[in-house]
Amino acid sequence: MDRSSTHRRPDAAGLLIALILFVITGLIWWDMTTLQISSVYGPGPKAMPIVVASGLLLLAIANAIIAFRGGLPERESLDWKPILLILGGLAALVALIAHGGGFILGTTILFAATAAAFGRRAFLTDLVIGFVLAILIFVVFAKLLALSLPMGPIENLF
Amino acid sequence: MDAFIALANGLTVALQPINLLFALIGVLLGTAVGVLPGIGPALTVALLLPITFRLDPGGSLIMFAGIYYGGMYGGSTTSILINTPGESASMVTALEGNKMAKAGRGGPALATSAIGSFVAGTIATIGLAFLAPYLVDIAIQFGPEDYFALMCVAFVTVSATFGDSPVRGLTSLFIGLVLGLVGIDLLTGQARLTFGVPELLDGVEVTTLAVGLFAIGEALYVSSRRHLHEEKLEPVRGSLWMTKADWKRSWKPWLRGAAFGFPIGALPAGGAEIPTFLSYSTEKKLTKHPEEFGHGAIEGVAGPESANNAAAAGTLVPLLTLGLPTSATAAMLLAGFQQYGLNPGPLLFAERPELVWGLIASLFIANAMLLVLNLPLVGLWVRLLAIPQPWLYAGILVFATMGTIAANPSPVEIVMLSVFGVLGFLMRRFDYPIAPVVVGLILGPIAESQLRRALSISLGDPMVLLESPISATLLTIALIALILPFVLKGMGRFKAVED
Question: What is the pTM of this model?
């Protein structure tokens, strides 16, 4: 921090980060109080959460001070659309796996969504590419290397 | 010399045809994945970890060593040709290397970094082989309180001492420590921070965290900034080979780079960045061509790249002898050991010498293979850079989720992966270092169990931490390393006021 930073405006995002750190500190503390059993000698299971929560509390305060002085690094403008596309692809994968849609379908959607996030416009083509890639991966890793991948209607054909 | 005999035994393990094959697969995979932009060695190892899950430990650790070294070689190719260093340690290489590539001297830049990596990597691996037995002798006398103190040193140096901002570094470390708390407490069997989710009882997987932070986080970050600037691949024009003058200007920086890299990497301080910066500024001072620095000086590639590789080999010293990972990549290697129930440290040298020494010997072999693979075949690796960015990142995400779900088949694991991805994105955006999170997750639980062991032996008397001379010294070092950056910063502020 140089001298000029004290004249900068408070950083809203930085204050939000500090707030999240405060919340996590509170969560650890609350969780620690629910522990029942302790050790006979020496520190029990509560010791480490107490240490971590205390440290995090100090760091939350330090982060808040830095944010209040506007001491965070400069940030460039941000495009939200690709982020939502990628997270949407991941959400689709989770939903499909959780409801028995299988690995191949989920991976196909994730592939196409990520490619779209990086500027591809040919969504249908990418779906086909993703589908072929997913089948290849499934055959190599689930069949040849015997890794267990989530099953679904397409996986059962193999 | 014990080290000679042990190393010779290791070589007989490493030279078995099946292990040579594993080493070859490792270096090929490592280089191929490492060359992809945005993928550093840590992510390379993390992505490939689940694939090796079903193999036998000896062979797959040798494959890992190949992946580790291969990822380093591949990473420097990317830094030089498209100026997107996959990790902070190749940033300096990108500085001069990319300028050389732009000036049509990409070939010699790649050559000097490959040969320099080979020279420095070999020197550092020899250093590792001879230093390790001594450290093992010392480490065997360590009590639990000494181990705890050692981990405190690693925590502080990795997060606070060498970063831009000690507060941000420590914040990263504590996020890692929080994640390390999740799961069942081994001594009393009680669940901590699981919030009733059964999948959390086993704790947070290191690979899920690393892949989330590095792969998903990087994809989110790069995609959100795509509108700002486009990456440009510099074609390799002209001769690939170094001229006589290039050799003359390179060999000293290689050796000096190794001399900076290995000792600093071997200290439990972590970070290959410091030696690369030291090497760069030294070469800048010693060069006969100061006017070329900033416009593509070959010394500025040869030195830092050697320092980087030597430091990477150096981090294996605390990793193998003490079980102490001091970089994100070393943390991933430790996770690789742990997936077979192996714990690096003095005991592993005693119980499974063929494994440890086979691994060390295979580092020499991997290094030699990489030199052969990289010099003539660099054109082939460069083609990987021509994969269009949308497909490249789509492919990375597919492999990242596949690896995670193969290791732990549950949708909750992908949710965690995504959460860590968002965390990685935010940390990149707000400039929090990422390696301390991984180190905190791995070392936090170990530090806790060592402390509790020490205090239950001493019947709860905390003075045991100060009564052991080793522990007292290490804790003092940790304290100094913690306070020093704040003091220096305070002095810097005084200076600024005086100006």
Answer: 0.89
- Which one of B227, B414, B448 has the shortest CB-CB distance to A79? B227
DSSP of B338-403, one letter per residue? HTTT---SHHHHHH-HHHHHHHHHHHHHHHHHHHHHHHHHHHHHHHHTTS-HHHHHHHHHHHHHHH
Shared domain for A104 and A153, answered yes or no, is yes
From A42, A111, A148, residue closest to B406, measured CB to CB: A148
Q: Would the ipTM clear 0.90, i.e. be above it? A: yes
Whether A73 is covered by a domain: the verdict is no
What is the domain range of residue A146?
80-157
Minimum-distance CB partner of B226 among A35, A75, A118:
A118
- In this complex, do B411 and A97 lie within 8 Å of one another by their Cβ atoms? yes
**Residue A10 and residue A63 in one domain:** yes
Q: State whether B225 and A76 contact (CB < 8 Å).
A: yes
Q: B340: domain range?
A: 2-498
Set of chain A residues whose Cβ sits within 8 Å of the Cβ of B415: 94
Q: Please, what's the b/e burial string for B90-122 (b: 16 or more CB within 10 A of its CB; e: otherwise)? A: bbbbbbbbbbbbeeebbbbbbbbbbbbbbbbbb
CA dihedral B142, B145, B148, B154 (to 10 degrees): -60
Mean pLDDT per 10-residue interval, chain B, length 499 residues: 82 89 91 82 81 78 87 85 72 85 86 92 93 89 90 87 81 96 87 89 90 92 82 69 87 92 80 81 87 87 91 90 86 87 88 90 92 82 82 91 86 95 94 90 91 86 88 92 81 49
Judged by a CB distance cut-off of 8 A, whether residue B459 touches chain A is yes
Q: A97 with A61, same domain?
A: no
Q: Are A99 and A141 within one domain?
A: yes
